[in-house]
Automatic annotation (TrEMBL):
Name of the protein in its database record: 3-phosphoshikimate 1-carboxyvinyltransferase
Cross-referenced NCBIfam families: aroA
Gene: aroA
Annotated family: Belongs to the EPSP synthase family.
Species, as recorded: Alicyclobacillus sacchari
Record GO cellular component, one term: cytoplasm
């Protein structure tokens, strides 16, 4: 099976099912809309895993209903954690770090968060588990996390010919404390996973970063949320080292904030059509790094207003190009920038994002292949691309089983006739309601 084919097993009951193609009709006028975006995937899956480890009950509101969250909840239930999904909240009965099902198999779906956070959280417990991901998740890197967990006492046996990926058997007898050295150069989720598990180590644990972290902000989100649930953590500035006390999380009521990554597609819609979009339920001071995509849009000539309720982006007559942008610290928006870049008045170079070759797809390769198939000139480098201005033509595009490819490519359809997206249901990883939301802001989409 090629990586372009959908891994439908990873689609959850919360997914958009039964659709094969999204045909987008270009906007006939600038998009002017107010939008409310669903809960953050990153915050949702941290809250679920931390609440499961905690002592006492947690009541989580604003939980995202998407594949990533669904499989995280299912994995926790498989481990014997009681998780009740109510209309207004998800209620998690904490285990105090002792997993009721000490010998079972868990499936993490396609989510990097569930795979990295649960592997670490289990390693801090006692038991023997098989951990599997979706077809793509089973190819994504885990090696540096396995190495660090092994150094602290976990026994990890690969269950495929690839030693550094899922599926694995994990035999856990708790994590020793002390100091562990880790790389953050491939994925910040390795660091977040280790930190989330750290309060359950046998003694205080210091995580020292040997190189750099690709997306620091996600580690800050982890540290903030650990503290919110009662953990005692200290970090050096720049996150070169973090020290976690061995003291449990305490269950609590917690409100999940809106997803800044999802918001970006709607701001980009305003940018592309010369319209105006307010995302009502996000603040500029969120820790989520993708909010800074509005800074890139401002550089491209958009007016950005963060002073009132929500964040407003107003698009210019013509987007500005002629710039180089490091997307390292908000790399989930690389596809969004790449797919609006052809409409700018000069080339745009994107740098420092080699790590996104290991995301849901090889995203740099996908940018090159997709834009070239639309008649746009692109140069590819190991860590980025340069995209030249042009006039894309219509085409049927693969979504490469990658939610962000489908969402970002839809933006091209707002201004180019004849754009069709294959397997639109892949948006379900983080935003099953994406096409409904586009329709709400006036875009005509035929889902067949
Ligand atoms: O911790 C998180 O919630 C995330 C970290 C980032 O991953 P990497 O650090 O692996 O790039 C980001 O791309 C992902 O969407 C969410
Ligand atoms: C990289 C992503 O997801 P994850 O690593 O959580 O699977 C993403 O949502 O773009």
């Amino acid at each position: 099976m090629s990586s372009q084919e959908a891994d439908l097993h990873a689609r959850s009951p919360w997914a958009l099912h039964g659709v094969h193609l999204a045909a987008i009709t270009p906007a006939t006028q600038p998009i002017v809309a107010d939008v409310i975006v669903p809960g953050s995937k990153s915050v949702t899956n941290r809250a679920l895993v931390i609440a499961a480890l905690a002592e006492g009950v947690s009541r989580l509101s604003g939980v995202l209903r998407s594949d990533d969250a669904y499989w995280c909840i299912e994995a926790l239930r498989q481990l014997g954690v009681r998780v009740e999904v109510r209309p207004e909240a998800v209620v998690v009965e904490g285990t105090g770090g002792s997993w009721p099902n000490a010998n079972t198999e868990v499936y993490t779906g396609a989510g990097g968060t569930a795979a990295r956070f649960l592997t670490s959280a289990l390693a801090a417990g006692h038991g023997s588990w098989v951990i599997r991901g979706s077809r793509r998740m089973n190819e994504r890197p885990m090696g540096e996390l396995f190495q660090a967990l092994t150094a602290l006492g976990a026994v990890i046996t690969p269950m495929s010919e690839r030693p550094h990926t899922l599926p694995i058997r994990l035999e856990a007898n708790g994590l020793t404390g002390g100091t562990v050295h880790m790389s953050g150069a491939t994925s910040s989720q390795f660091i977040s996973g280790m930190l989330i598990a750290a309060p359950y180590a046998q003694s205080p644990l210091t995580v020292e970063i040997v190189d750099h972290i690709v997306q620091h902000a996600y580690v800050h989100i982890t540290l903030d949320m650990m503290r919110d649930f009662g953990a005692r953590v200290k970090e050096l500035s720049g996150l070169s080292a973090m020290q976690v006390e061995a003291s449990p999380y305490i269950g609590r009521e917690y409100e999940i904030e809106a997803d800044a990554s999802t918001a970006c597609y709607f701001w980009a819609a305003a940018a592309l059509t010369g319209g105006q979009v307010r995302v009502q339920n996000l603040r500029y001071d969120t820790r989520q790094p993708d909010v800074h995509f509005v800074d890139v849009l401002a550089q491209m000539g958009c007016a950005v207003d963060t002073s009132g309720q929500g964040i407003v982006v107003r698009g210019p007559e013509r987007l500005r190009g002629g710039m180089t942008v490091s997307m390292k610290e908000m790399s989930d928006q690389t596809l969004t920038l790449a797919f609006i870049a052809p409409f700018a008045d000069g080339p745009i170079s994107i740098t420092d994002v080699e790590h996104i070759r290991h995301h849901e797809s090889d995203r740099l390769h996908v940018i090159v292949e997709t834009l070239r198939s639309l008649g746009i000139a692109v140069d590819e480098r190991a860590d980025g691309v340069t995209i030249y201005p042009g006039a894309p033509h219509g085409a049927r595009l693969s979504s490469f089983d990658d939610h962000r490819v489908a969402m970002a490519a839809s933006l091209i359809g707002l201004v180019v006739p004849g754009i069709e997206i294959e397997d639109p249901g892949c948006v379900s990883k983080t935003c099953p309601m994406f096409f409904d939301k586009l329709q709400e802001i006036g875009i005509n989409i035929a889902l067949t």
